[in-house]
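I hope you will forgive my troubling you with a question about protein structure. The full record is reproduced below for your convenience:

——
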Amino acid sequence: MKLISIIIPVYNTRVTDLQEAINSIEKQTYTNFEVLLVDDGSNDECAHYLDALCEKDERIRCIHRKKHGVSASRNFGTLNAQGDYVVYMDADDLLTPWCLED
């Protein structure tokens, strides 16, 4: 099975939006994926929530950085991705359950 890297730049996203985005990823029918949350200098509440997500699921990694912008965060995530394929998401996006499989 090929590994898919899902790269999500995050900057002060509401926790409820992040929860919904991560829930949509966890419901994928294709399960060989990694999630790279690239924290672009978020406030403490958001940063702590990202760390908690990493503790909950070993497929999720968080990289904390100082503010560089969304494009630089996507590029940084791409450099750190280990997957055969890359999917880019925003922190408030939702995936259909069969998105990765398709």
Summary: The beta strands are 4-10, 33-40, 60-65, 85-88. The first strand starts at residue 4 and ends at 10.
